[in-house]
Amino acid sequence: MGVVAAAVLGLVLAAALWWAYFARDAERSEANLSAASMNDRVRMALFGYFYTLIPMLVGVITLAAGVELTIGNLGSRSSSVWSSRW
Q1: DSSP notation for 27-53
Q2: Which DSSP category does 77 fall into?
Q3: Residue 8, Cβ neighbours under 10 Å: how many?
Q4: 80 lies in a domain?
């Protein structure tokens, strides 16, 4: 049951990240970019679609690795100091 709950929570987390990134941003970005001058448009596009994407990708990869390790280790007993005391 724990593996299923962890998998469902992982999917809910992925859906929440998807919604947070893609919800209504395309329309607002298009309006802001079309209203800006060409120099400002290039700067805005670089910061909005390139420089902010790199840390976001690193965060998503780290989160995915953490979810995978959590789901993979749910069935095994931990040999850490904390679990041996309880």
Answers
A1: HHHHHHHHHS-HHHHHHHHHIIIIITH
A2: P
A3: 10
A4: no
Residue 57 structural domain:
2-72
Per the domain annotation, does 22 fall within a domain?
yes
Classified as helix, coil or strand, 23 is coil
Helix, strand and coil content of the chain, in percent to the nearest 5, comes to 85, 0, 15
Taking the whole predicted model, whether its pTM rises above 0.90 is answered as: no
- Mind listing the pLDDT tens digit for each residue in 32-58? 889 999 989 999 988 888 888 888 888
What is the rounded CA–CA span in Å between residue 37 and residue 3? 52
Total number of domains constituting the chain: 1
Task: Judge whether 85 lies within some domain.
Answer: no
Q: List CB contacts of 67: < 8 A, sequence separation 6 or more.
A: 6, 10, 13
